[in-house]
């Protein structure tokens, strides 16, 4: 993707009507106001953008006085959310400069100029501004040129920018991965120097950056490898640092998690790099990153199933191997559980595709597709969970099985029998088998 010629991208600088209304009211009140940030960058690239942010000479309290409906999004940092006539919120931030920062939080000062405001931004491609009132474009750091050159470059001295906010190291990698850009050599050196200091970041900010990377980058593996090369993984997620490249490349082989897609697409991409690690290790690492309990459970459960089943997948789906029998596929479905059978196999397909691309022997795509269809059909047709059995714990108690842990152990043994041969799932057969197993309780 390259920056469009000026004659084209200037025409793309067309903020929505609500943004123009907010800008016009500020300008009419005597406050210089500019569109800034990602929307301006995306317009130069010819990409649509939903979020148009504004920077203004008005102080937060003045913005609040001008507009009837506002939200104090970050008053300490000069940001007020202004709702336009359609109820859409736009962030309006006072021109500011950093007074001091600890690499995680900044103390800002108002009363600055647009030039001061742009000078405190992270990368040149994000330091372009457009003034709707006059049609002027401010680009003091040649961000348009860097878009044309396809490069991410820090504003001013890269080391200072990284020390001001350590998250910028990860943001630079995300922007490069998102747009297919290179990273300026001096900026990359500053990112590497930041690696040991990234532990100062809050887990929530790291998780959010990782999720944005998985959403926005066509090839998240490239970004993860840059995280590794910069020392970010060693600091932030040591368990991932030793993972093979194929674990990262599996992300690239999964469907992108668009906003309209089900959240599982994002969770699958978040899970893929962890495949091969123990379930408990994945649980600990993602909990430490403050992922939600639902996300942690999803990733840890899928990683645990992969750890359990990967050897069987490789053996039965290898080139030249006969198609696995239904009994084997029922065992896979039972090990996954009905709702996780499909995502486990999607992740397996992605991992195997990444391995084949790297020249590592792995099951072929055709074999994986064929078994995917069969496993999903079996998972929703055959009895593969204890709840599918024709008897329950109460039935076993009536049949004379003593209460306690033995009931659960017998139910699991009955499920093994039924998974092997679904025709056994009848009340009579299962109760006879349960009585026999109860007589052998010491061996179960």
Explain how this protein is built:
This protein is of the alpha+beta class. The protein contains 23 helices and 11 strands. The strands form 3 sheets. A 7-stranded mixed sheet has the order 3-4-5-2-1-8-9. A two-stranded antiparallel sheet has the order 6-7. Helix 8 (about 165-180) packs parallel to helix 10 and helix 16 (about 280-290) packs antiparallel against helix 17. The longest helix is centred in the last third of the chain and has 25 residues, at about 295-315. The chain is elongated. Residues about 1-5 have low confidence and may be disordered.
Spatial arrangement of strands, main beta sheet: 3-4-5-2-1-8-9
Question: Overall 3D geometry?
Answer: elongated
Number of strands: 11
Mean model confidence by pLDDT: 92
Radius of gyration over C-alpha positions, nearest whole angstrom: 28 Å
Overall SS class? alpha+beta
Alpha carbon gap, first and last residue: 63 Å
Tell me about the largest β-sheet.
7 strands, mixed
Brief synopsis:
The chain has 444 residues and is an alpha+beta fold. It has helices spanning 6-12, 17-28, 38-45, 60-66, 114-119, 143-149, 158-164, 167-179, 185-194, 203-216, 220-229, 232-236, 238-241, 245-252, 264-271, 279-288, 293-317, 326-336, 341-357, 365-379, 393-398, 405-420, 427-439; strands at 33-36, 53-56, 70-74, 79-83, 89-94, 96-101, 106-110, 129-131, 136-138, 151-152, 182-183.
């Amino acid at each position: 993707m390259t920056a469009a010629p000026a004659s084209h991208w200037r025409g793309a600088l067309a903020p929505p009507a609500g943004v123009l209304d907010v800008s016009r009211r500020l300008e009419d009140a005597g406050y210089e106001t500019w569109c800034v940030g990602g929307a301006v960058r995306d317009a130069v690239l010819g990409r649509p953008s939903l979020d148009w942010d504004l920077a203004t000479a008005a102080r937060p309290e003045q913005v609040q006085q001008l507009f009837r409906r506002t939200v104090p999004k970050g008053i300490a940092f000069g940001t007020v959310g202004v709702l336009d006539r359609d109820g859409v919120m736009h962030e309006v931030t006072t021109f500011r400069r950093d007074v001091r920062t600890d690499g995680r939080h900044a103390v800002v000062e108002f009363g600055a100029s647009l030039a001061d405001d742009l000078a405190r931004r992270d990368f040149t491609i994000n330091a372009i501004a457009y003034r709707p009132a006059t049609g002027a474009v401010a680009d003091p750091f040649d961000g348009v040129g860097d878009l044309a050159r396809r490069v991410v470059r820090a504003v001013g001295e890269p080391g200072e920018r990284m020390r001001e906010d350590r998250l910028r190291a990860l943001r630079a990698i995300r922007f490069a991965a998102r747009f297919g850009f290179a990273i300026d050599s001096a900026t990359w050196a500053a990112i590497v120097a930041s690696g040991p200091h990234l532990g100062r970041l809050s887990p929530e900010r790291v998780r959010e950056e990782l999720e944005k990377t998985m959403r926005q980058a066509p090839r998240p593996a490239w970004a993860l490898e840059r995280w590794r090369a910069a020392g970010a993984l060693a600091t932030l997620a040591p368990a991932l640092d030793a993972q093979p490249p194929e674990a990262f490349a599996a992300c690239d082989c999964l469907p992108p998690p668009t906003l309209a897609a089900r959240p599982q697409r994002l969770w699958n991409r978040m899970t893929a790099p962890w495949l091969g690690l123990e379930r408990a290790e994945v649980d600990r690492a993602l909990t430490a990153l403050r992922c939600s309990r639902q996300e942690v459970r999803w990733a840890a459960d899928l990683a645990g199933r992969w750890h359990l089943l990967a050897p069987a997948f490789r053996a039965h789906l290898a080139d030249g191997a006969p198609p696995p029998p239904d009994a084997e596929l029922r065992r896979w479905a039972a090990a996954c559980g009905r709702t996780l059978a499909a995502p486990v196999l999607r992740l397996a397909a992605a991992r195997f595709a990444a391995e084949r691309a790297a020249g590592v022997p792995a099951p072929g795509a055709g074999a994986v597709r064929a078994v995917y269809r069969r496993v999903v059909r079996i998972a929703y047709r055959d009895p593969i969970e204890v709840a599918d059995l024709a008897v329950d714990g109460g039935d076993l108690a009536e049949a004379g099985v003593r209460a306690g842990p033995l009931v659960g152990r017998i139910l699991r043994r009955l499920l093994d029998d039924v998974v092997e041969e679904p025709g056994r799932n009848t009340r009579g057969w299962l109760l006879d088998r349960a009585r026999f197993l109860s007589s052998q309780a010491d061996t179960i």
